[in-house]
Design brief:
five-stranded mixed sheet; 5 helices; four-stranded antiparallel sheet; 27 strands; single chain
Length: 546
């Protein structure tokens, strides 16, 4: 069988650039009808380009000791049938030019360049242009402090979903035009290392990134606005800034190339550090504080602390808390008597080390921890809220929390809204308990317990089955409906237990209290405050619907 070798004086020397047989042996002694191109020794661009446009070549590998030339531009241009390139053994320490290195590798699906030494490279323009099958690129090892040109670097990488540019230093780069042009499938970009102060041309840098939702930048960004008068975001229709600024086809130029919300101005970028966008109140069945946080790629675990509890949320498992703007809404629940107790949040990396955390104005928190309470939210809302329904709801919640504290702890706090409610207000909520007994549980969430001593072990309510529980301390048996939202406390439900049919709602307990415990003012104040809270929550929900 004929051998393909580069020879001198009948001995194999220099660079072997050959196609391997089906065994894919990494040997210079190979046959010409295989699918692997093996590089070794001091290779040249011309030698490699001799195999461009060869349908037979599907893979490229490097043997240890393979040295790339100083000018490695166009090295694998139009290797349009190659699906895999492994250059982990390549020595690129002498290379200064990598422009268009993989340009036109249309079928390329994987490329290993993790060991590339790019410290002397000055030109990376068009390096991955039209690598249309490449989905992921890990360039985290790249050193780019001497690069001055990156235009079209990833242009027309239409299948690219993620690219790690976290290590990029572009302080000398003058041209980033069309850098991500038509990266159709790219969802997010981490450009936190980008210092744009030297860039003179950023024309259409993100042009036609149809799926791009988030671009992360740091305080380094510093766009040279005086030198650039250009369109940058055309057709980035899904792009949203970190504070919710959505893409607007009337704002596609440099004006919106800034961190959203910084200095009170809108932009399409998200701050690359972990930061707290704000806090809200949770009233969807449980009382609590929601922290709205934007997390960067280093965030691994979110740790929240509430009264008597610590919960660790792995970032990989909190997709249900992700909002449309890319931030996360992390809840911390408390019961009504804990409204004044602070809840906290901090972020850990993969090694368990605490990461820096910033405020919504991008000022660094001293201890990397954010702290808030239900009472602080109540105070802030009373001062800053404009919506009258919000003010009424917060006022009613405050009274309810105080009434609960008085009842459960013997305190004597003023309960403002309870005085506007009387026993007559509960006449609409007379229950039919069919011989059972009812109790109200006021924890983080409101719950109803129906105590029952029959033989049935399940109850039916609105198409759902509820199991029978047994209290350990006294053996009492009950069915429980949990986490009833404040605006649904007056919602009657029909429960079936065997042949019995019950009708009740949480405010039915208020009717029973007025009827049977009129001599217990703390309890009466509590159910009255609960009624007022329910009314305010219902009015607020109606205002949202309107």
């Amino acid at each position: 069988m004929k051998k393909w070798m580069k020879t001198a004086a009948a001995a194999f020397i220099g660079a072997a650039i050959c196609t391997a047989a089906g065994s894919l042996s990494a040997s210079a002694d190979v046959t010409p009808d295989g699918d692997t191109l093996i590089l070794s020794g001091n290779v040249t661009v011309d030698e490699v380009q001799a195999y461009a446009n060869k349908e037979a070549v599907k893979k490229v590998v490097c043997e240890p000791g393979t040295v790339f030339p100083k000018n490695s531009s166009w090295f694998f241009q139009h290797f349009d049938s190659v699906e895999s390139i492994d250059l982990s053994n390549a020595d690129t320490s002498q290379v200064t030019n990598m422009s268009d290195m993989f340009n036109g590798c249309y079928a390329l699906k994987s490329v290993n360049i993790s060991s590339f030494n790019t410290s002397n490279v000055t030109d990376m323009q068009g390096m991955f242009t039209a690598c249309k099958s490449l989905k992921r690129l890990d360039l985290s090892s790249f050193r780019t402090e001497n690069v001055n040109n990156m235009n079209n670097m990833f242009s027309n990488c239409t299948a690219l979903e993620s690219v790690d540019l976290s290590s990029f230093n572009i302080s000398k780069v003058e041209n980033t035009s069309y850098m991500f042009n038509t990266c159709d499938d790219l969802v997010e970009l981490d450009l936190s290392g980008f210092d744009m102060s030297s860039v003179q041309d950023a024309q259409d840098m993100f042009h036609s990134c149809y799926e791009l939702q988030s671009i992360y930048v740091s305080d380094k960004w510093n766009l040279n606005a005086d030198a650039i008068d250009t369109v940058m975001f055309k057709y980035c229709r899904k792009l949203v800034g970190g504070n919710g600024t959505a893409y607007d086809e009337n704002h596609t130029d440099k004006e919106y190339a800034r961190i959203d919300g910084k200095d009170g101005k809108p932009g399409y970028f998200t701050y690359s550090e972990n930061y707290v966008k704000g806090a809200s109140l949770s009233l969807d069945g449980k009382i609590g504080v929601n922290f709205h946080v934007s997390l960067n790629s280093k965030a691994f675990t979110v740790v929240v602390n509430g009264p008597g509890t610590t919960i660790e949320y792995p970032v990989s498992q909190i997709g249900m808390y992700k909002q449309d703007d890319g931030s996360y809404k992390i809840p911390v629940y408390v019961n009504a008597t804990q409204a004044g107790e602070a809840v906290t949040l901090k972020i850990l990396d993969e090694d368990g080390e605490q990461l820096d955390l910033y405020k919504s104005n991008f000022e660094k928190l001293d201890n990397g921890t954010v702290s808030y309470s239900v009472n602080e939210y109540i105070a802030d809302s009373a001062q800053y809220a404009d919506d009258e329904n919000v003010k009424a709801l917060v006022k009613a919640l405050d009274s309810y929390c105080k009434a609960a504290t008085n009842y459960f702890t013997g305190s004597d706090l003023a309960v403002e809204t309870a005085g506007s409610v009387s026993a007559d207000d509960f006449d609409l909520f007379v229950p039919d308990l069919a011989g059972t007994k009812m109790a109200l549980v006021l924890d983080a969430g409101t719950a109803i317990r129906i105590f029952y001593d029959g033989t049935e072990t399940t109850a039916q309510l609105e198409g759902r089955s509820f199991p029978l529980y047994i209290q350990e301390k006294n053996g009492s048996k009950y069915f429980e409906i949990e986490n009833i939202a404040a605006h649904e406390l007056d919602h009657f439900c029909g429960m079936k237990i065997g042949t019995k049919t019950l009708a009740f709602c949480p405010l039915s307990y208020g009717y029973l209290a007025h009827d049977m415990a009129a001599d217990k003012p703390e309890l009466i104040n509590l159910v009255n405050a609960l009624y007022a809270y329910s009314e305010a929550a219902w009015a607020y929900q109606q205002s949202l619907a309107d």
